[in-house]
Automatic annotation (TrEMBL):
The keyword Repeat applies. This is LIM domain only protein 3. Residues 22-84, 86-148 form the LIM zinc-binding domain. One of its GO terms (cellular component) is cytoplasm. PANTHER family: LD11652P (PTHR45787), LIM DOMAIN ONLY PROTEIN 3 (PTHR45787:SF7). Keywords: LIM domain, Metal-binding, Repeat, Zinc. GO terms for biological process: negative regulation of ERK1 and ERK2 cascade; positive regulation of fat cell differentiation; positive regulation of nuclear receptor-mediated glucocorticoid signaling pathway; positive regulation of peroxisome proliferator activated receptor signaling pathway; positive regulation of transcription by RNA polymerase II. One of its GO terms (molecular function) is transcription coactivator activity. It comes from the Eukaryota. Pfam families: LIM. The keyword tRNA processing does not apply.
């Protein structure tokens, strides 16, 4: 399991009046504001640390930024451009960022993989499903499993 996201924290610092103004890594001018942002070991005007895609001010959106190929991006754009949603908990293959997924607790699934793992029944919106030992189960199989001793651990309600 490797989860490598190139995310970096952003700090907002207040500028001490008696210190020499720092240069902004975005516009190369001195930062004379009362606050500056520190990210990627560089200093930035609050206005200069922006997502290369949507121009949002990263100091406001959250306190992380993402970089890839010299681009500075907000999380949304990073995931949109480069991200993957995660690994499908059923087939353990990667799910690309754009694909529709099903989510259950912390797990994500391909739409096609989201079915009872014992009887392959697919679920519709509103259907009950159960998660047991990271297996998706329909209600019938779940309840059957509960009755067979030792087959499942104690029930965990979903
Ligand atoms: Zn600047
Ligand atoms: Zn963005
Ligand atoms: Zn899958
Ligand atoms: Zn089933």
């Amino acid at each position: 399991m490797q989860k490598k996201e190139k995310s970096f924290g952003i700090q907002m610092l207040s500028v001490q009046p008696d210190t020499k103004p720092k240069g902004c890594a975005g516009c190369n001018r001195k930062i004379k504001d009362r606050y500056l942002l520190k990210a990627l070991d560089k200093y930035w005007h609050e206005d200069c640390l922006k997502c290369a895609c949507c121009d949002c001010r990263l100091g406001e959106v959250g306190s992380t930024l993402y970089t890839k190929a010299n681009l500075i991006l907000c999380r949304r754009d990073y995931l949109r451009l480069f991200g993957v949603t995660g690994n499908c908990a059923a087939c353990s293959k990667l799910i690309p960022a754009f694909e529709m997924v099903m989510r259950a607790k912390d797990n994500v699934y391909h739409l096609d993989c989201f079915a009872c793992q014992l009887c392959n029944q697919r679920f519709c919106v509103g259907d009950k499903f159960f998660l047991k030992n990271n297996m998706i189960l329909c209600q019938t199989d779940y309840e059957e499993g509960l009755m067979k001793e030792g087959y499942f651990e104690r029930a965990v309600s979903f």
